């Protein structure tokens, strides 16, 4: 009996092996076996997703099937970890690259994030096409932390924004000040032009007659005549009369 038991076990094992060899490899007749694994670069070991920046992740892809496939696109989505509720889909990046049988490659995928800082479930997948059929393979499904960008004193973009805003506020303040508090205009005094021509000086003070109005000159002449002021002609006649008197005394 033991011989028959041993013989039956041997025959059963042989039949199992024969069926396993005869049956096709899983996925050869249906969905081809394509492996995809995504990982963040070495400078982002903790897998932080920074708001407002281009976040990059790399996908290692390998075609394990005996058929050639075409990589269609890579896309992803953010979900609430507790409820798995969809927050937002990331933009799909099209490739259209053929992946031959047994070939492997690494492709980058970049996406943006504008979410409230916190923990989210990030799902990234790869779509490929075989014989007109599209299949999806999950490459990454894990919890990530969405954080704000770290501030820096040498951030040129931040300083440029501050300068532009400061300039606009300064221009607006100056406009409001000049509108509400207008400045009084200063009166301009016209410069006195010097007289043109030859300047003559008369009298003991050496004043310039060109600066004296004509009617004042006429009044001054009349007053001098009325007071009996001797003119240059009278002074000359007096000198001559004095000389004649001296001559007469000499003759005597």
Q: Could you provide a short overview of the structure?
A:
The chain is of the alpha+beta class and 252 residues long.
Plain-language structure description:
The chain has about 250 residues and is of the alpha+beta class. It has a domain at about 35-145: Immunoglobulin-like. About 30% of the residues lie in helices and about 30% in strands. It contains four helices and eleven strands. It has helices at about 1-20, 155-180, 215-225, 230-250; strands spanning about 35-40, 50, 55-65, 70-80, 85-90, 95-100, 105-110, 120-130, 135-145, 200, 205-210. Strands 2, 4, 5, 6, 8 and 9 form a six-stranded mixed sheet that branches. A hairpin with a 2-residue loop joins strand 8 (about 120-130) and strand 9. The protein is rod-shaped and about 135 Å long. The model is unreliable at about 1-25 and about 230-240 (pLDDT under 50).
Q: Strands, helices and their partners?
A:
Elements: H1 2-22, E1 34-39, E2 48-50, E3 55-63, E4 69-79, E5 86-89, E6 93-99, E7 104-111, E8 118-130, E9 133-147, H2 156-180, E10 201-202, E11 207-208, H3 214-226, H4 232-251
Parallel strand pairs: 2-9
Antiparallel strand pairs: 1-3, 3-7, 4-5, 4-6, 4-8, 8-9, 10-11
Key structural traits:
252 residues, alpha+beta, Immunoglobulin-like, 6-stranded mixed sheet, 3-stranded antiparallel sheet, 4 helices, 11 strands, disordered N terminus, Increased recombination centers protein 22-2
């Amino acid at each position: 009996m033991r011989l028959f038991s041993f013989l039956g076990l041997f025959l059963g094992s042989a039949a199992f092996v024969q069926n396993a060899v005869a049956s096709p490899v899983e996925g050869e007749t249906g969905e081809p076996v394509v492996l995809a694994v995504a990982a963040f670069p070495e400078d982002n070991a903790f897998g932080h997703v920074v708001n407002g920046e281009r976040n990059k992740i790399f996908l290692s892809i390998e075609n394990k099937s005996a058929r050639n496939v075409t990589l269609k696109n890579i896309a992803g989505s953010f979900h609430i970890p507790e409820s798995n509720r969809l927050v937002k889909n990331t933009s799909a990046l099209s490739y259209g690259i053929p992946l031959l049988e047994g070939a492997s490659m690494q492709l980058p995928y970049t996406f943006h994030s504008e979410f409230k800082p916190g923990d989210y479930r990030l799902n990234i997948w790869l779509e490929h096409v075989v014989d007109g059929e599209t299949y999806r393979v999950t490459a990454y499904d894990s919890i990530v932390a969405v954080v704000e960008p770290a501030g820096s004193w040498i951030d040129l973009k931040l300083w440029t924004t501050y300068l532009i805003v400061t300039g606009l506020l300064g221009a607006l303040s100056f406009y409001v000040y000049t509108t509400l508090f207008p400045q009084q205009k200063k009166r301009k005094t016209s410069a006195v032009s010097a007289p043109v021509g030859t300047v003559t000086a008369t009298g003991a003070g050496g004043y310039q007659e060109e600066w004296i109005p004509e009617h004042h000159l006429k009044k001054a002449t009349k007053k001098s005549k009325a007071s009996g002021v001797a003119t240059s002609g009278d002074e000359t006649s007096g000198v001559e009369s004095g000389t004649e008197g001296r001559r007469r005394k000499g003759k005597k």
